[in-house]
Amino acid sequence: MRLRTVTAGPAVAVFAAVTVALSALPAAASPGVRPSGSSLPALSAALLAAPPAVSLANVQTHLQQLQTIATANNGNRATGTAGHTATTTYLQQKLQAAGFTVTVQTCTTCTGGSAKNIIADWPGGNTSNTYMFGAHSDSVSAGPGINDDGSGTASLLEAALTLAANNPTMTNHVRFGWWGGEEQGLIGSKFYVNSLTSAQKTAIKAYGTFDMIASTNGGYFVTGTDAVAVKLREYFTSISVATETSTECCSDDDSFRAAGIPSSINSTGASYTKTSAQVTKWGGTAGAAYDPCYHKACDSYPSNINATSLGRWANAELYSVWTLTTGTTTANDFSVSLSPSTGAVTPGSSATATVSTATTSGSAQTVALTSSGAPSGVTVSFSPTSVTSGGSSTLTIATTTAAAAGSYTITVTGTGTATHTASYTLTVNGTGGGCTSAGQKLGDPGFENATTSWTGSSGVIGANTGDGAPRTGTRDAWLDGYGSTHTDTLSQAVTLPTGCTSYALSFYLKISTSETTTTSQYDKLTVQVGTTTLQVFSNLNASAYTLRSYDLAAYAGQTITLKFTGVEDSSLKTSFVIDDTALTVS
Predict the structure, then answer these.
(1) Ramachandran region, residue 390 (left: φ > 0; alpha: ψ -120 to 50; beta: rest)
(2) In what order do the strands lie in the sheet with 524-529?
(3) Which bin fits 49, alpha (ψ -120 to 50), beta or left (φ > 0)?
(4) Rounded Cα distance, 164 and 177, in Å
(5) Exposure winner among 209, 426, 461, 517, fewest CB in 10 A?
(6) Phi and psi dihedrals of 36, rounded to 5?
(7) Closest to 152 (Cα-Cα) out of 314, 33, 394, 347
(8) What is the β-pairing status of strands 419-428 and 406-415?
(9) Predicted model pTM
(10) Whole-angstrom Cα distance, residue 244 to residue 278?
């Protein structure tokens, strides 16, 4: 994984050896796991129509082969080296022997001008409805890249071989891709996508990339709303394993997403650290990286592979392939969700939420949005009022001063070939006493006092100069700007009063970058309130100090944490500089 990240997150218990019993498994480790360890987790009764289990031993055999290749080639499988050539040859031979139509595409923009992409099509199915699954076949030069991304490479290979061995009737078409040059900036997958015609891009209904799916201290991250992501979540729900949306991204999914193809990144995490809440959910060690060997020589087999997550992900991959492309024709369907799904307002003010839709089966369709349940004095509107599934709309809930205090459930309905709903809980605050605590609520808003109001990474707040020079005063907050893999955070908890009409967050942000791309978000700054993302900035937003403003009325009466997270990839620096913050209530 080339971490050009959002908080790009496009990786539970430590697995010492295949024959050693697993310890410290996630809380939900037992459902659906076959006891012998000879195959991947069995499918639950809810998924009896799903594919046969993939052989875990076979996936591990592929990983051992990738380790052997790296050991014989200066310890790595980096693009442009003999190690990567041997990797792509291994993939090509396995897939061709199984009956796939294999295209070996030379990536002329990759290192050495001779790196290979391996594209494998299984015969049959409607090619106008193609579902695509991918991983990157290269490593960094520092090590063999067994988790990053041998785990994705090997698991997808075995999923493809299992599909071929069972030879089901194909309804839709499936294509697999293994990309060179991911660690150099996703250039292999970009080369492939750029080689497609508009019609060929349109034919790909969803693309899922699998990058690092066996991290020794990882979790289960499914990040996207495309049809592949929907099926992955469906599978993990069936075996009682919780998933999250990652704040680490992006991998080769970014190349497809930039071309308008619905995409997801799926992983167990890279260099970000596991939280206590995630330990409760999955096991592992809080405060430690998901993959402590990320981009290091110790990313080797078998020491840096978690067999439990490797098995679950390989089975999830095949379940997604199988249910999207085999059997009877899939009806067009979609899902509707809200973020946030709750909000509190003072009479006379408004709240907003994002209505997200996703194509869960078949093809995209038009979804009309309506609402019900709004009380007197409350109106609900959508912008736009209809979307193509996979798109989003802004929900605005406006109140008059006559709106009665209380809690109300507003139902958002999406209507297409089917009807689906999502609920929003609206709290209208009482007006008694009015706005009794107006004013600016952030401590040390200009970073001038060196107080403990802010919590941040070492060196973020200071009397910075150069790219990090303050807008006013002598101090500010400077995140990233190192030109290497780096993460900085800055946060402050603040309590917002009720009864006020305006809750305005603002800050000045300067972004300077050495990145030269005009299309790819490599280094990113995520602005959050709690777990809700207000906005993501990147190297593409480079500018002088610019005022950024947000309405936080939905958080009236709550204690919130305002958080900035800057993530920088392995090369070409980007600086995110924040100054003159304010959270003004009136």
Answers:
(1) left
(2) 455-456, 486-495, 559-568, 524-529, 532-538
(3) alpha
(4) 16
(5) 517
(6) -70, -25
(7) 314
(8) antiparallel
(9) 0.57
(10) 9
CA 28 – CA 238 distance, rounded (Å):
11
Tell me the helices (H) and strands (E) count for the chain, helix number first. 9, 27
pLDDT in tens, 98-154: 999 999 999 988 876 678 999 999 999 999 999 999 999 999 999 999 999 999 999
pLDDT band at 283 (very low <50, low <70, confident <90, very high): very high
Structure tokens that stand for 447 in this block? 């970073």
Q: Which residues are catalytic?
A: 182
Distance between CA 156 and CA 88 in Å, rounded? 14
What is the end-to-end Cα distance of the chain in Å, rounded?
46
Contact in structure between 282 and 219 (CB atoms under 8 Å): yes
Contact 2, 183 (CB under 8 A): yes
Tally Cβ neighbours within 10 Å of residue 254: 26
What pLDDT sits at residue 433?
53
Alpha carbon distance 47, 240 (integer Å): 13
At 496, the amino acid letter reads L
The tens digit of pLDDT for each residue in 217-233 reads 999 999 999 999 999 99
Q: How far is CA 519 from the centre of its chain?
A: 19
Tokens of 207: 């693309």
Nearby residues of 550 by Cβ (< 8 Å), 6 or more positions away: 504, 505, 506, 527, 534, 535
Helix/strand/coil for 263? strand
Which residues, listed in sequence order, are joined to residue 411 by a DSSP beta bridge?
A: 372, 423
323: left (phi over 0), alpha (psi -120 to 50) or beta: alpha
Which single residue is written with the structure tokens 């890249």? 145
